[in-house]
Amino acid sequence: MTSRRLGSAARTVPGAVLFLIGAAALTGCGSAGGLESAGPTPTAVGPRTLWPKLPPATRPADDYGAGETAVVKGIDVPGGDLRKVDPLAVVRARMHADRKDYADVVDRLDACATAGPHGSGTSGTTGTTDCPVLRAYYPDLTGDGKPDLLVAVRAPKRQLYTQVYVYREGRLTQIMDDKDAVINVQLAGRILVVRAAADLPGYEYRTSWSYDSHQKAMLPTRDEIIRTGPPGTPTATPSGTPSAAPSPYPSRS
Prior knowledge:
By secondary structure, the protein is mostly beta strands.
């Protein structure tokens, strides 16, 4: 299971390409609305390594869990089509195999009724309103032209497990297992964007997960903290609008 932490925010070097007309051409252009020089072009500044003699790190500071996969046993996938598999059965098999990792939610799975392959139930959950397993989606996240299984499981304190399963080489394999104080999850092409509550009022975390063909797993390829309102704005609610009440989400750390 992924242990979440905020990665270093992406830093870009600002730059501008300025197209200017030569001085001779500008001299002869006196009509209103003509092009004018915007001044000298700023000198581009590239990244500079600080503390160059700093020894390289030998291990990460925290267990990010990136690249971890797990084979799910005991689940038959007819014809290799994940749409024909009960998503609840997949979640149960995975979580019961590692009960310690899912101690906060595994016993709550007993409230779920078998809902069939598509996992559609009351209020978008599998089975009953007390069931923590949300409806399944089947996007092609790996780019192999086949549907993958995307599920979410609600945990206490408004946490959410976001999981992705694939069927390859005759085995059902989990390739993403993220837990966070999720506001919502968005799909952009083959990229999953997880929006999560931040510790700072008026900000939120946004992590973009993409499939990596070398690691054969979903990796958090971009991790940002985004300003969503003026200083002092409460954490955004799942609908994306600021909440007037204090954030119900726990700290990300």
